[in-house]
Amino acid sequence: MTDSDWLVLRAMRPAIETLASRVAEPGKVAIDFGCGSQPYRSLFASRGLKYYGVDFEGGDMPILANGRVDAPDSCADLVLSFQVLEHVRDVNRYLQEARRLLRRDGCLILSTHGNWLFHPHPEDHRRWTRQGLLAELRENGFEIIECVPVLGPLAWTTLLRLTCGYHLLLKCPLLGRLLAKSLAVVMNLKGCAEDLVTPEWVRGDNACVYVTLSRAGAPV
Question: pTM of the full predicted structure?
Answer without folding.
Answer: 0.94
